[in-house]
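Reminder to self: keep the SMILES exactly as supplied, no canonicalising. Ligand is S-adenosylmethionine.
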Amino acid sequence: MNYRHVYHAGNFADVFKHAFLARILVYLTLKETPLRFMDAHAGIGRYDLNGEEARRAGEWRNGVARLKNAAPPPDVAALLEPYLQTLGPFDGEGRPERYPGSPAIAQALLRPQDRIALCELHPEDRATLIANMGRDGRLAIVELDAYVALNAWLPPKEKRGMVLIDPPFEAPGENKRLIEALTRALRKWPRGVYALWRPIKDARDDARFLNAVAAIGAPNMLRLELDVGEAPTTSAASVPLTKTGLLVVNPPYVLFEEAKVLLPYLVKLLGRGKGAGFVCEWLTAPN
Ligand SMILES: C[S@@+](CC[C@H](N)C(=O)[O-])C[C@H]1O[C@@H](n2cnc3c(N)ncnc32)[C@H](O)[C@@H]1O
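Structure tokens returned for the bound complex:
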């Protein structure tokens, strides 16, 4: 396991993923009853964008830093507000004091009655995650394989909540394992909300992946994608990511309409050139 999210923290794909994560959590907390947030690939929770790795990669500059001077129209501003609240103030270059990963976003937006289950397989990252999350009685942090944890967690005793599946996609066969895990998870907890993040590098591979997910046969799968367009020319060795997607299974009923407002703005905010755009459509029919 070589992947370290600190190199990518706060990049355009994080802004996209975390803005929608915040929307889902906001919706789920409208009801008083407790819920559980389960993060199968948690990372380290909070990221220092001033640290050596983040400075070297600099991906946050084309991501979260663009929010510093953003002036979204009121409908977009209202939708972004919970995510912005988790970021706190920016420094002169557009860095939040520490960029919140998905565990920190859940920690900020969930209530005392809710529970947060985090899984991080990398032992060092898990130790950092524990330190970064601080003392919080709502937390349980395990060092397991994500799909083993998921199988153990589901269905949660609260019967409400969401799962985030956010692997690094560095292991061969990740897509196959993910689809098997989602199939099993949906059998155990068919009404749960699931958010599956993915990088989109090859259109054909991605179409195959989507077909395989649709073939699980579950309804209510929402496909959200952001393409920031042509990347500036760099060395052939490092082709930067320009497209990312989130599949949301059983999304809150408002998410489709919210995405139609948020995504065009994210294209404007984070777009870099030719080909920038978005997708907001049902992969399988809503019911
Ligand atoms: C993309 S990062 C997670 C980012 C985080 N969800 C966020 O949004 O802030 C993926 C994380 O999964 C961890 N990981 C990789 N393989 C794993 C596995 N099989 N089970 C659990 N965690 C894994 C990596 O160490 C890495 O920290």
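Points to follow up:
Residues 1, 3, 5, 17, 39, 41-43, 101-102, 119-122, 125, 145-146, 164, 166-168 surround S-adenosylmethionine (CB under 6 Å).
DSSP finds nine helices and ten strands in the chain.
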